[in-house]
Amino acid sequence: MTRASVRIGLIGTGRIGQVHAAAIAANPHAELTGVADVFVDGARATAARFGGIATDNAEELIASGQLDAVLIASPTPTHVDLISASVEAGLPVLCEKPIDLDINRVDALLPKVRAASVPVALGFNRRFDPAFAAVRARVAAGEIGSLEQLSIISRDPAAPPADYVGVSGGIFRDMTIHDFDMARFFLPDIVEVSATGSQLFDDGARTHGDFDTAVTTLRSSCGAIVSITNSRHSAVGYDQRLEAFGATGMLQVANAPTSLVSLSTAAAVEAKPPYQDFFLERYAEAYAAELDAFIALVRGEKSDSPTYEDGRAALLLADAAQRSATGGGTVAVDLGFSAVAGAA
Amino acid sequence: MTRASVRIGLIGTGRIGQVHAAAIAANPHAELTGVADVFVDGARATAARFGGIATDNAEELIASGQLDAVLIASPTPTHVDLISASVEAGLPVLCEKPIDLDINRVDALLPKVRAASVPVALGFNRRFDPAFAAVRARVAAGEIGSLEQLSIISRDPAAPPADYVGVSGGIFRDMTIHDFDMARFFLPDIVEVSATGSQLFDDGARTHGDFDTAVTTLRSSCGAIVSITNSRHSAVGYDQRLEAFGATGMLQVANAPTSLVSLSTAAAVEAKPPYQDFFLERYAEAYAAELDAFIALVRGEKSDSPTYEDGRAALLLADAAQRSATGGGTVAVDLGFSAVAGAA
Amino acid sequence: MTRASVRIGLIGTGRIGQVHAAAIAANPHAELTGVADVFVDGARATAARFGGIATDNAEELIASGQLDAVLIASPTPTHVDLISASVEAGLPVLCEKPIDLDINRVDALLPKVRAASVPVALGFNRRFDPAFAAVRARVAAGEIGSLEQLSIISRDPAAPPADYVGVSGGIFRDMTIHDFDMARFFLPDIVEVSATGSQLFDDGARTHGDFDTAVTTLRSSCGAIVSITNSRHSAVGYDQRLEAFGATGMLQVANAPTSLVSLSTAAAVEAKPPYQDFFLERYAEAYAAELDAFIALVRGEKSDSPTYEDGRAALLLADAAQRSATGGGTVAVDLGFSAVAGAA
Amino acid sequence: MTRASVRIGLIGTGRIGQVHAAAIAANPHAELTGVADVFVDGARATAARFGGIATDNAEELIASGQLDAVLIASPTPTHVDLISASVEAGLPVLCEKPIDLDINRVDALLPKVRAASVPVALGFNRRFDPAFAAVRARVAAGEIGSLEQLSIISRDPAAPPADYVGVSGGIFRDMTIHDFDMARFFLPDIVEVSATGSQLFDDGARTHGDFDTAVTTLRSSCGAIVSITNSRHSAVGYDQRLEAFGATGMLQVANAPTSLVSLSTAAAVEAKPPYQDFFLERYAEAYAAELDAFIALVRGEKSDSPTYEDGRAALLLADAAQRSATGGGTVAVDLGFSAVAGAA
To answer: Where is the Gfo/Idh/MocA-like oxidoreductase N-terminal domain (chains A, B, C, D) (predicted)?
Structure first.
């Protein structure tokens, strides 16, 4: 309580940048010291609301000597350079997913990240959701015996704008990447990927040769099988479920109810209001907990923040899924965990 | 299996008589030996479908020497005389509820029933419902500690015909009587009754000065409190729930689903089809188990059949509720269990 | 947004005072200007955390000229005098329930409250719970037709300290009073009360001649019947449910889940973690919304804050229930709504 | 009602044969005329209980002239010859799944079945389950818009004996075959199969090189994707769920509860008893409805019985899944529906 707040520089003030700015402002152990955005008006508005100085120059903010840590929420193509600059400046980083759409760029930075004296964390917020985290802890505690199957259903309420789809890297790198990391939250060492995608309803996907519907199967080195079901739309609201099936039982995460009220009539009974709108509502607690973990990481305390290696692994799985779904059949992957101490 | 079937004479072939005839025909240990109804066509049709001889004379059937037991499903005013004739003939009886609408007639027959060499069972079918019976067994096994509150919700889908309401004895003697017995299934020694009734929607109730809506509170000698919620209609289907609340937990009986299917749309999620239509569907298993218990009783085996005393107790509670709801305030009752060996 | 914050003086810094202090501090339209408590250390600690000056003298705070409104969260016996002083000072009041344990003192203040130029609101927070408020709005919108039965289950996790029971005024005035107000939220004009209480498990209740278990039935002037089920303990957690049964359907409020996770094993399926601990968690949103309504009231805007008359009506029902449960049978009540303009 | 009963000859009196014998005996429109089993004692016991003559010679029973139809429930290797003999004898056939483990034998018989004057139905009982059938009808009625994803979870309570595994044809041909048919119940024209299998817990699977855990993905010609999750064991009981996800909503089939009772304690709330033991309980209604459909087929009435072609299609999918899961990647399939009139 008496320790100084962690001074954070936020880069990027789009939708997810706003989430992080609000989380920093609400956290008693953090302080929004600076905000950078090439659209400087966005930086100014965010700083006015949540604190800190505003700039259009992220590099200057990183080099300012006023920061204890950097939070990168700018567009994906900027991530690698900003991570690089931050670790050079000796600042711990929390970077939004994905690291980059190109695994070569990710790999090129890898030696520098490994050699750095500061940690690089990846923004896989769902690991910090109380329900998913509880299931993982209870699986680890043996409540369902050996984990045999993991089923993840992840459907967004509505497809993103067509322009976004064009630069997203495709459904696997943009959307399923969260589920790949969730799979690895339970089963880090995935060795095989098989994916099937379809273009059923979204014009953006049609225009850009992407899928709007996909099912992906992963196999862990231990033989456990993961099934991921994705859709870019969901009439019933944000659909985020998980089922861990083990030798002696199963743990299930239901969708979050938006109300405790149900209606029964002659037409139907026990009908509830639709699920939550989107990730800001569903994962509000997770974003706060993600920041707590990053603060602990910055302070050198015990932390569960996912790592740069986790971000790289998720991208490798996304690449494999993309290849599988476009004629590549079943794709073997090697996430290289034998070489990475502590990665699993 | 090799024991002879119990030869049963059925009196009354209305709706509930049909239920019993079908149950007897389907039971490998029972045989429908004779069917009596003053409307002899009803007796003939039932006998043709489920077996046995048909007659319009119940007394002759009872005295025929062809029976091992009698099942009385005729109109309520005939019950006392038919029970009397049956025990005189040395035949065990299963009589539909209520014994009679007049407690004086019930009491007048009591000594004869107590002195009889054959048992008289009452048709409180809900005791044999698997869910209610399971809750009682689990309460007895201590799963929720000492029972403190029992909440019963019992709503019929639709009000009976106005003519029936006029001869029904009122909602407490006709409908709540099942719930009084259910209360005593858990807490036999009720000592206090308080009831509130309203006439809200049913023309039959209005015409005959009856209630269509009622809430009744019972107190057991041990202090446990029972709450009974009744309505003569229910738009969502037959509403039959129970909650046993104890010192260390609670056991709840939900309404029976009519389907495993639920629908989720943008308007509402997890909506299920309405509940069952009525008691024939809801309590089908209970009627079969009720007959099994009666057969065991006839054979002198261990049996859980409710007794004539149970029927009398339920009527005493109904009378007290009627008095309470019509200006009598809280009514003390003495079900006389100190005098009745084994009644609780 | 640009309007000045409402400057609130908080009196009382016990458990519920803390809830209000935190709500005021978190509300962008309110400011904690002063905190009074006869235990001045409590006032100081609260002021240090949430703002404002600290004093042990509530009257001085009220008379300070620094306030726009008063929030009374001190012990019940102080309420009447503090309300009186506040309205004399021309300050709107939000007072915790109950107004007083003695209806005569409540009635004595009534003319002054009615004549006052400022409003007096009562702290019936549950009206502001999103689920209960939604049910009331949906009933009003006709989703279940005419309201016929209202069932409220309200069980605290654990009995209060024995000392508290001794000064609480009894279960009906202390605990059920929330449910009486909830009943009147749906059916303002209650005309009849019948209550049954038992002393089953709590030593405090035994010592002080109170009940720890109670069932209360209310009848509205329109004939609708309310059933309230209370217990001073609940092994499964805070148990707060409501069912509105109408001519064409029903609306139900379930207990709030504490997790989205369920466990299925060979022993039991779909088991969820226990319900919430207590009212602070369950009604967190309600306390915030209650404050919003009070701020609107202070500003002369449209507001749903329950009134002093509502507080008086709930106490009249509690008194009637106490009388009924201690030998008074069914008790007629006249909440005097014909004389109170706008009361429902 | 007045039409003559369909005289059925049953071949095979193992577990599934017993199910059919009981269904025939209980069906008012069917009669068990003869029972054949090479273990003649089984035939005799079944005939003694459910009716008909007993023989160890199935061919003689088929040729007896006493039958209107044949129901084949003998071991899989006998199916093709018995179907052949039956259609030669001009008798309609209901044959248990799978037709055979060898697609060549199935194809060899195909011309004869197509040319036959009598229909051959396949025992895909799950199509007749009220819940699955209701979902299909509601999807067809447009309740969820265009069907985009179908998720099937199908887990047996416990692995079969190791000996059985050895002759079962493997998990895809033995167990998943039901799910392949269920997939085709909704989406007949499957064009692509991808499967992943593991050997995690079952010694029988280990011994015989089979999988005990599998996830299979199918793609329909319309682009809809099916996900099938299988396990040979399930600690929570028979796990049979389905989710149809469409453009405007979803329909879900839950596991069948074995009781209406739930238990809440300080440890866990709303815990229900485990699911049903196995298919006999879960699909009891389905077997009766399957027989009804077959009787209608025999009588030349409108019938929904799955066909020999459906049996062949399921086997083609099982073969493709086996190939995929053993190194074959994604396998294209051609179920030949362009050539088979009315098959979809």
So the answer is: 6-123
Let me know if domain A126-332 sits in CATH 3.30.360.10.
yes
Matching fold, domains B6-118 and B126-283+307-332:
no
Q: What is the bridge-based pairing of β-strands A30-36 and A6-11?
A: parallel
Closest CA to C22 of C275, C285, C307: C285
Could you read off the pLDDT tens digit of each residue along chain D, which spans 344 residues? 346 899 999 999 999 999 999 999 999 999 999 999 999 999 999 999 999 999 999 999 999 999 999 999 999 999 999 999 999 999 999 999 999 999 999 999 999 999 999 999 999 999 999 999 999 999 999 999 999 999 999 999 999 999 999 999 999 999 999 999 999 999 999 999 999 999 999 999 999 999 999 999 999 999 999 999 999 999 999 999 999 999 999 999 999 999 999 999 999 999 999 997 777 788 989 999 999 999 999 999 999 999 999 999 999 999 999 999 999 999 999 998 643 333 33
**Amino acid letter, residue C28:** P
Closest residue of A to B256, CA-based? A269
Q: How far apart are CA B43 and CA B73, in angstroms?
A: 12
Shortest CB distance from A236 goes to which of B235, B269, B275? B269
User: Is the Cβ–Cβ distance between C35 and C21 less than 8 Å?
Assistant: yes
Residues belonging to chain C: 344
- Identify the three-state secondary structure at position B145: coil
Domain ranges of chain A: 6-118, 126-332
Give, as one character, the DSSP assignment of residue D272.
B
The mean pLDDT of chain C is 94
Nearest to D317 by CA among D196, D159, D177: D177
Residue C286 CA to residue C304 CA, distance in Å, equals 13
Q: Are D126 and D182 in contact (CB under 8 A)?
A: yes
CB C320, CB C333: distance < 8 Å: yes
Class of domain B126-283+307-332: alpha beta
Backbone angles phi, psi at C27, to 5 degrees: -90, 125
Does domain C126-339 fall under CATH 3.40.50.1820? My reply is no
Per CB-CB distance under 8 Å, the chain C contacts of A253 are 260-261
**Shortest CB distance from C265 goes to which of D236, D264, D269?**
D236
CA distance D157 to chain B (A): 19
The position carrying tokens 């003053």 is: B38
Do B253 and A258 contact (CB within 8 A), yes or no? no
CA dihedral C88, C94, C96, C97 (to 10 degrees): 80
Q: How many CB atoms lie within 10 A of CB A252?
A: 19
Query: Closest to D268 (Cβ–Cβ): which among C255, C266, C272?
Result: C272
Distance CA D294, CA D6 (A): 10
Secondary-structure class of domain D126-282+307-332 per CATH: alpha beta
List the alpha helices (DSSP H) in chain A. Answer: 15-26, 40-50, 58-62, 79-88, 103-115, 130-140, 162-167, 171, 177-186, 203-208, 279-282, 284-298, 308-323
ipTM of the complex model: 0.94
Between chains, do D149 and A213 touch, taking CB under 8 Å as contact?
Answer: yes
Pairing of strands C239-246, C249-253: antiparallel
- Given the candidates 1.10.3720.10, 3.40.50.720, 3.40.250.10, 2.40.128.20, the CATH classification of the domain at B6-118 is 3.40.50.720
Q: Are strands C6-11 and B93-95 parallel, antiparallel or unpaired?
A: unpaired
Contact C272/D272, CB-based, under 8 Å? no
Give the least confident one: B333-342, C312-321, D60-69: B333-342
Alpha-carbon torsion angle C7, C13, C14, C16, nearest 10: 10
> Do the Cβ atoms of D30 and D291 come closer than 8 Å?
yes
- E strand residue ranges, B103-189: 120-122, 147-155
Q: Are C85 and C60 in contact (CB under 8 A)?
A: no
Contact assessment for residue D127 and residue D306, using Cβ atoms and an 8 Å cutoff:
yes
